[in-house]
Design a protein that fits this description.
By secondary structure, the protein is an alpha/beta fold. It has one domain. It is built from six helices and four strands; from the N terminus they run H-E-E-H-E-H-H-H-E-H. Strands 1-4-2-3 form a four-stranded parallel sheet. The model has no long low-confidence stretch (mean pLDDT 87).
Length: 143
């Protein structure tokens, strides 16, 4: 298991921000993780470096959670399943590789700042990064 210090560094490499929030020099690569383009925002003004539609929740899951039919915990489970299958798995691998090289900001358009796909994705990514770091540490200890 990675140390608290390692886990903290991983967490610092991923920021979550509403796409309408002002730009910041600390943003790193700004990545839109919504399936739909945000309303009323021009591509020029958004300053998005990458749009990962394939990492967004499926249309069906998105409609269920926004319609109130899906509880947050159930959404997290189902979204995690989607990220483990294609095309989400490929997009997640590419994103994890980018996070290893540079800081990123995951952008979302939802009004709810605590329960949205970007927050869920960050937590999922951190879990993957921690698991990978823990696995590498365990392999090194066996040598």
């Amino acid at each position: 298991m990675p140390s608290k210090r390692t886990a903290s560094r991983l967490s610092e490499r991923i920021t979550v921000k509403r796409v309408y929030a002002p730009l910041s020099p600390q943003d790193g690569t700004r990545i839109l993780v919504d399936r739909l383009w945000p309303r009323g925002l021009s591509k020029d003004k958004a300053k998005i470096g990458l749009w990962l539609k394939d990492i967004a929740p499926s249309e069906e899951l998105r409609r269920r959670v926004h319609g109130g039919q899906e509880a947050w915990d159930a959404f997290l489970v189902e979204y995690g399943r989607e990220l483990a299958r294609e095309p989400g798995a490929s997009a997640a691998r590419a994103l994890l590789e980018r996070i290893a090289r540079e800081p990123v900001t995951l952008l979302y358009a939802a009004r709810n700042e605590t329960q949205n796909n970007a927050v869920a994705l960050k937590n999922w990514l951190l879990g993957k990064l921690r698991a990978d770091a823990g696995g590498k540490k365990a392999k090194a200890a066996k040598r």
